[in-house]
Design brief:
Strand order of the largest sheet: 3-4-1-6-9
CATH architecture: Sandwich
Helix content: under 10%
CATH class: Mainly Beta
Number of helices: 0
Radius of gyration: 16 Å
Largest sheet: 5 strands, antiparallel
Strand content: 35-45%
Shape: globular
Structural class: mainly beta
Number of strands: 10
CATH topology: Jelly Rolls
């Protein structure tokens, strides 16, 4: 039986207000792909995130959300290979929210890898993750929300 570790990701990105955060993506969904949301595949990684529609993933049989989302199938790659997704630049003084749901699981309970969130400053390197999760997290969706404070005149960019 082939092992099929993979990561599914629903990502929402917004500026947090001073009141409670509303879970919206500012009208931007993955239904039209990555570009309208200003998300980009990193050209220096080993493989890409896949844009998929829920109707194409019926074989998963796991609370697959309606609409579109991003997926990494790590079973097709070597240990240590990376798929990186770049989020829009954050320039203004503010607190930005990275709000997402993830499903990190592998059949046969093999290690599906690590899901990291990095932030770089002024086009520097993505060095240490600001958030991560490693290994199979069960057959369920999990939610995470990160707040990234930015300070002018620096540019910040998150990478998943």
């Amino acid at each position: 039986m082939n092992a099929t570790p993979f990561v599914l990701l629903l990502l929402l990105y917004e500026t947090c207000g001073s009141a409670a955060v509303e879970f919206s993506s500012g009208g931007c969904t993955f239904d039209d792909g990555l570009e309208p949301c200003e998300y980009w595949q990193d050209q220096e990684d080993d493989f890409d995130w896949r844009h998929v529609r829920s109707e194409d993933m019926l074989h998963l049989q796991h609370n697959v959300p309606q609409g579109s989302f991003l997926m990494v199938d790590s079973s097709q790659h070597r240990s240590g290979d990376k798929a990186r997704l770049l989020l829009p630049l954050m320039k203004e003084n503010d607190t930005h929210c990275i709000d997402f749901s993830y499903w990190l699981h592998s059949k046969d309970y093999l290690n599906p890898g690590t899901l990291n969130i990095f932030v770089r400053v002024n086009k520097g390197a993505f060095v240490n993750p600001i958030w991560n999760v490693t290994g199979s997290q069960g057959e369920e969706w999990h939610r995470a929300e990160l707040a990234v404070s930015t300070f002018w005149p620096n540019e910040y960019q998150a990478c998943i």
